[in-house]
Design brief:
Strand content: 25-35%
Largest sheet: 10 strands, mixed
Structural class: alpha+beta
Number of strands: 26
Distance between the termini: 36 Å
Oligomer: single chain
Strand order of the largest sheet: 1-2-4-3-5-6-9-10-13-14
Number of helices: 13
Helix content: 10-25%
Length: 616
């Protein structure tokens, strides 16, 4: 979450210093010279007041009326007080600051200096549930509507148009503005928006709990707040130089609620653990069904290397596209980690070099023209439906639809002898097996790290290939380049000697020098293979199909490279450990964690495979 959008102290520990630096054209003195800062408490329809920080250009006048560009955030709208100005420009980017808007930042309900009770993702409650026999009084859509209404009436010299943007959780609030939108809301950019926390965003992926991220984040975010506060203190002091060792020593996940850690003080953490299936709790937090009747122009933005909300960007775009045919809805996917498009420079990532500043390119050619056109009638905005970066060729591509067409559906079959081929497997073949041991889980990254290593999403997988509990299937060197576009589907036939198991499938680009670069990976909690709402145990040692989707890619595998697929059952401590017995994981005891023999089948009757779409 970029520092320019997220000022919470918690995230200073998550992002490296380089990620927090956001140089702008103006320093705080220049902002003061060019903008008047207003701190206001805006009343919602139920009387709750939301703290709102406003920067109005000093030259605003009837002849030079400005549009409003707003970000709603749970991570602080500060600095607070009308004498305290943002030190890095009034806007969310240097380019937008230079353009001049009325910039608005608001603490959402129940966070920082806003009144009310914070709830985890309340997108459009009228679309999901009612209180008694009446609809709820408020949700994030109504809070946005009420805020816009106040701003239009109380800020002189606005031009009557409003835009919204935000990254990560603020991206969710941008999405939440779309249902029943205020008529003045003309342009919205949800960027890496949290969208469905059970299926693929921050909390869980296909039901598997993302332990590493949520433990650290919850310590700073999920803090009881009896009244509005300008700052939050963590629930407990936490620092480790070796996350793998710490979380393994922590033991079963229920131990996180011990007296040294959350101690039942973290309400949202407890909700996450109490709701282990895709029940009404998670379904109510899923904003996708509410994204109907959308009228503003939309620009959805995401990063191929986003370790948090890649799913959110892709699925927000798809939900809007399917449920609102004909509207202006565009997608941008770049070679970015979480929010990296807001950084001053993103011309490389780890060992990858992109040959240009991709973040600046995006802001100058897509984001700024988008808001200028729809809010100021300035210039034009003729971007393609999908502007997407190819992570294999390091070039931007444009398409009239995403996923692009035409594309040829192909199936990569896992073969005996750990081969990989587009040809169907032989009639008879023994399964390949490994022993999965929760006491010795496969690390998600190489080396020792105290915090999440963001580079794991494209990391060389040779460290994992060396392990006996990771199966690596390799294709032959490619005679010609292959471009894979869109979602991937893992279709495994497996068995386990236990009654539950996780499956992690990785698609890898093996280069001629032996580097095994990760292209995409995803986990599936096996108990949810037939239903995310009604988990089922495995019958021990019985071949069973586990089929699930991996997030989209646009990646060209060059000639001479090999396609590779890895299969494993632990990904630690990124993902919590599955006991491999069919018990509630949130309350599992140490004795419930058992070794299991996992078999992957690759014969004609049980053809394990990864399905891809190839561009011509």
């Amino acid at each position: 979450m970029p520092r320019s959008f997220v000022l919470a102290a918690a995230l200073a520990l998550v992002l490296p210093a380089a990620a927090q630096a956001q140089p702008r054209a103006q320093d705080s003195a220049a902002v003061r010279q060019n903008y008047v800062k207003l701190d206001r408490r805006i009343s919602m329809r139920d009387g709750v007041q939301l703290y709102t920080v406003i920067y109005v250009p000093r030259d605003a006048a009837p002849a030079t009326a400005y549009p409003i560009l707003m970000t709603r955030t749970p991570y602080s709208a500060g600095p607070y007080g009308e004498n305290h100005y943002r030190g890095n420009g009034p806007g969310p980017s240097r380019e937008l600051s230079d353009e001049k808007y009325i910039f608005v930042y608001q603490d959402v309900r129940g966070r920082y200096l806003s009144e009310g009770q914070f709830e985890e993702m309340t997108p459009d409650l009228q679309g999901f549930k009612a209180i008694g026999n009446r609809p709820p009084l408020h949700d994030e859509s109504t809070d946005t509507f009420d805020t816009i209404e106040w701003l239009l009436k109380n800020l002189p010299n606005n031009n009557g148009r409003v835009g919204m943007m935000g990254i990560s959780y603020p991206g969710f609030y941008a999405s939440a503005a779309l249902p029943n939108a205020h008529p003045a809301l003309k342009a919205v950019s949800p960027q890496a928006p949290v969208t469905d926390e059970f299926m693929g965003d921050d909390a869980r992926h296909k039901g598997a709990f993302f332990l590493l991220d949520n433990f650290e984040f919850t310590n700073y975010f999920d803090v009881p707040r009896p009244k509005p506060v300008a700052n939050y203190e963590p629930l407990f002091k936490f620092e480790t130089k070796d996350a793998y060792k710490f979380y393994l020593a922590l033991g079963p996940i229920k131990n996180a609620n011990g007296p040294k850690y959350f101690n039942n003080r973290a309400r949202i953490w407890n909700e996450y653990q109490q709701h282990e299936t895709y029940d009404a709790y998670w379904q109510a937090c899923n904003i996708r069904p509410a994204l109907t009747g959308v009228k503003p122009a939309v620009l959805v933005v995401g990063g191929w290397f986003d370790a948090e909300d890649l799913y959110g960007a892709l699925n927000t775009y798809q939900a809007i596209e399917k449920q609102n045919p004909g509207i202006s809805n565009r997608l941008v996917m770049g070679p970015w980690t979480h929010g990296a498009w807001a950084r001053a420079d993103w011309s490389k990532f780890g060992p990858l070099s992109f040959g240009a500043n991709t973040a600046e390119y995006y802001r100058q050619n897509l984001e700024t023209p988008f808001f200028n056109f729809y809010l100021k009638d300035k210039g034009s905005f003729n971007a393609a439906e999908a502007t997407v970066f190819n992570t294999g060729t390091n070039e931007w591509k444009t398409y009239p639809a995403w996923p692009p067409a035409p594309a040829e559906a192909r199936t990569l079959y896992l073969q005996s002898g750990k081969g990989l081929d587009f040809k169907a497997p032989a009639v008879a073949s023994k399964p390949t097996e490994y022993i999965s041991d929760p006491a010795n889980p496969v690390p998600y990254t190489n080396g020792i790290h105290g915090e999440r290593n963001n580079e794991y999403v494209m990391e060389d997988q040779r460290f994992a290939a060396k392990r006996a509990d990771v199966l690596t299937f390799r294709g032959e060197p490619l005679a010609q380049a292959l471009t894979v576009a869109g979602p991937l589907t893992a279709d495994l036939w497996v068995s386990t000697s236990g009654t539950d198991a996780d499956f992690i499938v990785k698609v890898i680009d093996e280069q001629p020098d032996g580097t095994q670069r990760l292209v995409r990976a995803e986990v599936m909690r096996g108990r949810f293979r037939n239903s995310f709402s009604k988990p089922e145990a495995f019958t021990p040692n019985q071949p069973t199909e586990v089929k699930y989707e991996l997030p989209d890619v646009l990646h060209t595998f060059a000639a001479g490279h090999r396609l590779m697929v890895q299969v494993q059952s632990t990904w630690f401590p990124l993902v919590d450990r599955n006991p491999q017995t069919f018990v509630p994981i949130a309350t599992a005891d140490a004795k419930d964690f058992q070794k299991a023999t996992i078999k992957v089948y690759h014969d004609a009757g049980h053809p394990s495979a990864v399905r891809v779409a190839l561009l011509p």
